[in-house]
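Chain A, query sequence.
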Amino acid sequence: MIGKRPANYSLFDVGNVWPLEMKPKSFHYQLAVAAQKGHFKDEEFAPLYHSSNGRPSVPPSQLALMLILQTHDGVSDERAIECSMFDLRWAAVLGRHAGEALCAKSTLQLFRSHLILHEEFRTLLKRSIEQAKASGLIEGKAITAAIDTKPMLGRGAVQDTYNLLAQAMRQLARALARDAGCAIRDFLDGNGLTDLSEPSIKGTVVVDWNDEEQRDAFLSTLVEQARRLLKIADGGSKRVVESAGLLSQLLLQDVEEKSDPNDPGKTKASIKQETVRDRVPSATDPEQRHGRKSASKRFNGHKSSVVCETGSGIVLSCAILCGNAGDATDALKQVEEAQKNVGLPIGELLGDCAYGGAETRSEFADSKHTLFAKVPSPPSGLFGKNEFQIDLNNDRVTCPAGHISNDYTKHKDGGKTFYFDEHCEGCPLREQCTTSVHGRTLKIHPNALCVYNK
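Chain A, predicted structure.
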């Protein structure tokens, strides 16, 4: 049952014991004032609670304020609970006496989970935008916004192929054991899978990991056990089906199986040399992906995409992208959501070169949104595409050195790639143009053809 925040408390109730003065322009002071004016109302979170059964909960309006405080101060859940007890600024915002924790850590985690599952976290976002508009932080008939992404690290352990398969097999075995009403260790022992009971399969076997034949022999045994588990799992419960699907996906993405030349009746497994595009790197968090924020910065997890108002920095919309998704994925959809949240048209949108692709520009132009983003540029010091004279009416391109190329291939999507191989050898400007041993190429995106033809 939903709990209600008491209405008869003073903003600086903590001042009864310890004097407290905060700068009027500080974040905590302004949030405390907003909280006193009812920035969040308990009834706004009513869908998360039963109308009559159960004990009164911790007031959800205070939990919502606590999540904002936690995000601003960048602290863990455990530290957030401590701050609600000992930080007088937090006590002022929450309207509580110092020394009293607002809630248990599990209560905060459960509230956050409910917000996400029920999409009620939009309430926090929209109420914050309304408060910003009422305070004059966002004003005018149209606003300027910026969009960007940042990595969100996944929580699941990233493992190599051997331990990844073993972990997925353990999860499937656990689901099968639960359906059979027995302990997982008994299930593993009964099916000859005792090695899977240990956290690291590589730590339980004697294999010379520098020997390719021994590695492949061990992998073949592991794959054979996985196939046996999948056969047992055929037609099981929903949990079994999901675990079996994950194991099948991991086998398909990481393992290559061929007939054993020494024994035609058996297959020999080896690890694929190339990484598949949508590879799952973790069995405990199968939604995370290998991501790349830049050429040198890699991560495993997801991407958080955020649209904010440039003057105040107020977040207008947010979305979660796959770790391997392009930054501009569903950018227009997110901008339109931000426009709906703020109730004002977004006159201009700013983005980095990740949003400067031809497809994204075309999509925004068709929707009548003004997008400002840099065009992706070549490595520093090399001639960019704008240094070339492009004449697609005559299918020719002239390079900065004056060489003309009519040699091109046309792609299925309508784009073209021009080649300067024969001109690059001995060209005095080669070092300023390309680092490729084959010579310079110039790709023209299909959406850009109409631009160059004008």
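The chain has a mean pLDDT of 85. DSSP finds 15 helices and 14 strands in the chain.
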